[in-house]
Specification:
- This protein has 246 residues and is an alpha/beta fold.
- Helix content is 46%, strand content 13%.
- It has a five-stranded parallel β-sheet with strand order 2-1-3-4-5, sandwiched between helices. Strands 6-7 form a two-stranded antiparallel ribbon.
- Strand 6 (160-161) and strand 7 form a beta hairpin.
- Helix 8 (187-194) crosses helix 9.
- It is globular.
- The two termini are 20 Å apart.
Length: 246
């Protein structure tokens, strides 16, 4: 894991705004929880309002702390982080939950998105990536660690079955935009990366959403993974470790 004091990459965080982003932590490892809190407390524009060691504590403390974003571990004593996410989203539908975990299997990713998570990072992420993810979800992004994004995107290379079993084929440009979107990029950032207009990105995304019968970024990835599970009993194959460049 990172060292929030010596890792200078954390300085890439967005400058502080008038109203800081309120963040809660749910992590059972005391040393890691302290490291994460130290990272958040030292980041401009972010305020750590709550740090919990279990899902049970989180369900009691987080509603009162009213955070904007939660960094959530999966492997917790008692109720899992996924179960905790379900309970918190029932109480606070607008809460943005980012999973921060060591698990990168398709089953965990699918269950986390189904539970209501809007981002999925691995614990080997850098401080800058964690802070960037918090800023991204506040702006409508769906941040994911590169390894996770690849597992989600790889099967977009084929066709996706819709609810009436029609074959839906995504164009190469649509797949390219989805890959950048899954990294947490906003529409303007995608437009800049691909040297196309902001309007063109919105048009492509509208086509993707229409084809997949969804209304948002997270729904698009969840829909894809749900259809994949329904059509195959095999998990998405693992890919070599590596990151998608941001």
């Amino acid at each position: 894991m990172f060292n929030p004091v010596t890792d200078t990459r954390a300085s890439r965080a967005t400058p502080a705004e008038a109203s800081p982003t309120r963040v809660a932590l749910v992590e059972d490892s005391v040393p890691l929880r302290k490291q994460l809190r130290q990272l958040l407390d030292g980041a401009p524009g972010i305020q750590c309002v709550c740090a919990c060691g279990s899902a049970e504590d989180a369900c009691l403390q987080i509603p009162a702390a009213t955070p904007d974003v939660v960094l959530m571990d999966i492997n917790l004593p008692g109720i899992s982080g996924i179960g905790c996410t379900v309970q918190l989203k029932q109480q606070l539908p607008a809460l943005q939950v980012i999973m921060l975990t060591v698990y990168e299997d398709g089953e965990s990713i699918f269950n986390a998105l189904k539970a209501g998570a809007c981002g999925y990072l691995l614990k080997r992420s850098s401080p800058a990536e964690i802070l960037d993810a918090i800023n991204a979800v506040r702006q409508g992004g769906v941040p994911m660690t590169g390894e996770v994004a690849r597992k989600v995107i790889m099967t977009f290379q084929g066709a996706v079955a819709g609810p009436t079993e029609e074959v839906v084929t995504l164009s190469s440009r649509e797949q390219e935009i989805l890959e950048l979107l899954s990294q947490g990029m906003l529409n303007k950032e995608i437009a800049d990366r691909l040297s196309i207009s902001y309007h063109t990105v919105k048009v492509h995304l509208k086509h993707v959403y229409d084809k997949l019968h969804v209304r948002s970024r997270a729904e698009a990835m969840l829909k894809f993974m749900s259809d994949k599970r329904a059509s195959s009993t095999h998990r998405p194959p693992s890919l070599p470790a590596g990151r998608l460049e941001r």
